[in-house]
Write a structure and sequence with these properties.
Helix content: 40-55%
Radius of gyration: 14 Å
Length: 155
């Protein structure tokens, strides 16, 4: 099965639509638990990370995940923290210019990865205050799992 990467306007619209009115410690737990439930239902071998500022508020590693997933989480999360938008959107914007993040960002690829799976936690009136990241699936599927959870969480 080939997973098609969403187009840039769709990725931008997801970020606008998934802006939250608040994000508390309890919200991090609820979102993280929801992600775990969605991943378990799919038997997805993922690691999940939620941060606000420099503080990790939630982390889970499901069966089949590995320490490498935590390294990927850190690299993808750093892209969101630097650019203020999802790691998939950042990578897509570089590809739309006919290049790659690795070739043109001038950032160390051992520290930054513009691969799908990390999404900004954006709060109305405050901007980006944190990140939610999944690693373990192909990058578009990581991204879609986060978006699906945020859509359910925002209801």
């Amino acid at each position: 099965m080939t997973t098609v990467t969403p187009e840039i306007p769709e990725l931008e619209e997801q970020e606008r639509r998934l802006t939250l009115t608040r994000f508390t410690y309890d919200d991090a737990w609820r979102l993280g638990t929801l992600l775990v439930e969605l991943a378990r239902a799919r038997q997805a071998p993922v690691a999940i990370d939620i941060r606000r500022g420099g503080q990790q508020l939630f982390h889970a590693a499901l069966p089949g995940s590995a320490p490498d997933n935590d390294a990927w989480i850190d690299r993808k999360r750093r892209v969101v923290e630097r650019y203020g938008c999802s790691s998939l959107l950042v990578g897509s914007r570089f590809r739309a210019k006919g290049t790659t993040f690795e070739d043109s960002s001038r950032l160390d690829p051992d520290v930054y990865a513009a691969h799908g799976g990390s999404f900004p936690i954006r709060v109305e009136g405050a901007g980006v205050i944190g990140t939610v990241t999944v690693s373990g699936l192909p990058q578009v599927e990581d991204h879609r799992l986060v978006v699906e959870a945020l859509e359910q969480f925002k209801i």
